[in-house]
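Notebook entry, structure prediction.
Reason for the run: the old model in the group folder had no record of what sequence produced it. Starting over properly, with the input documented here first.
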Amino acid sequence: MSKAFHLSLLEKVPVLILLGILAGAVGGLGIGLIQMKSSTPASAGK
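New structure, fully documented this time:
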């Protein structure tokens, strides 16, 4: 039982890493788009 549990943990690690990278990329893109949208009216107003 302990060996199977250990293998399942090892199999979950790369999936968690991939999910973290995807979440970071999506969050970064969202923040970048929001900053672009909020900065364009400010630069146009000047």
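Summary: The helical segments are 2-45.
The old model has been moved to the deprecated folder.
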